[in-house]
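Translate sequence into structure tokens.
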Amino acid sequence: MDAGHFLSFIAFELGVVGFFFICRRLVKAPVALGATLLLATQPMLYGQAFINQKDIPFMALLAVSVALGMIAVEKHAADTGRAGPREPRQSSGGVGALIREMARHGHRALAHPWLSLAAGVLLVLSISSFVGYPYMGWIEGTIRAAYAGKSITLVNEWFGRIANNASVLSVDAYLHKASALYDKARLTLAIGFAIFLPILIKSAFPESLANYDAKWLRRNLLVVAAGAAMGMATSIRVAGPLAGLLVSVYFVFKAGRRAIQPLVAYAAAALCAMYATWPFLWDAPIARFNESLHVMANYPGHDHILFDGVYWSSSALPWDYIARLMAYELTIPALGLFVWGAVVLSKKLARGQIRWGLAAVPILWLGLPFLAFIVRRTPIYDNLRQVLFAIPPVLLIGAFGLEEMWRILGWPALRILVFVLLLFPAVYGVVSLHPYEYAYYNQFVGGVNGVISRYELDYWCTSYREAMAYINDVGPENAKVVVWGPLHSASDFARPDLQFFSDDTPPPDPQFALRCRRTLPDPGFYADYETVMQLRLGSAVLTTVNARPGLLGK
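Result follows.
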């Protein structure tokens, strides 16, 4: 469990590195480093980095994909140029030449039977992967027959040897195992083919491959890596193709028509990575992906979203929900730099001091999620949790403001002093709110104390961990604990003997009741019990522990 939180934080740090490489293309290196430090120390993001094992990795993979894609674009432009090829050897080669040679001399592959067999296997696997389970019907029928002893003798004997628990397990258990093995076998063989295919091509068509050199390999590996990161991001959130759009826009502005071929490789790598890392797609990728899009676009609403002291439905939130929360949950210096940076960027674009293709990356990265929410009113909840990926472009635009500030200040010592002052609210927020950094609010709303009963604080009830340390210490053996909200937030940190129940199905006369105040207080939640502990963040009560009257001798 703690290992998962640590890996989530490592993913966050990788995303921070990706952010730096993107920012370095917009501003000078020292300024990019400053903007990166501001991003990495935002208290709300820093706290999410340890506890949010879905949205933080998505944000990180999106940043890494965009960074790798931009680097690949620049390598491609440097190696080939817009006006014409800089590598004469490639002018007569390339992927087109390889395809033409394969069409004319495909019979050469037959001289390599084992490699050709691997190619055929992948072709069959690829087709079967995208049309569903063409073989599972036969496999399931064979297992059912063998389970009943009605298959051929050899199959019956083989099944009897491997199914030692057939007398106590149902046939469905074996069907489930077979389905899982089938998925793993397809994926393993597909990866194996991906390894052998280049060997086959190199052996059968050496003339065309001779046109490729180390530079070609490096820049295309970057393209593939960027696409793979986008594919993995998409397997986490269906908004992953946003990275592909940003890279594509930059590529087209930078390379023109020369961008088509590497973008095809980028898309292919993304599709392969998405399929490999998203088991939900394995049996019918196209249908399942469309199903995911439909579910996300029409996700069931939540009716208890606390925003500005009012309960809202997640499908009917105010149009400025995201903007206001960003204005309250990011530090004031970061917001000030964003406003200043937006002005500076606008002036640079008007004067032609920055190319539109480069400026489009942070503008579209930030603007499209805002536009999608305003137009479609996509249901979101838990404050900014589901749109964390839209925060990095705020700091990217803010980097222009930081660069202008450093230009005005001039003296290096003065620059450092002012930057430390800009960074101080973020660092202070991380230190003072630990371990609840993700509940940070800035002074525009009066900090944490100013949002009590107005905005959500500990909406994941992470304070249950501290509450359970208290119950573990004072609770009697086999005590029954009723938990409002997520059971696992409490039970994961409990003694083995404790029994947990949801507030929807409480047992009679439990010993303890836990209430996380993620929303407005509920005075009817075990009001006749004694309040034996309260966890506070400033003046805000995060969790209340109620005990049966007289249980603890008070």
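Note: Confidence is low (pLDDT under 50) at residues 83-93.
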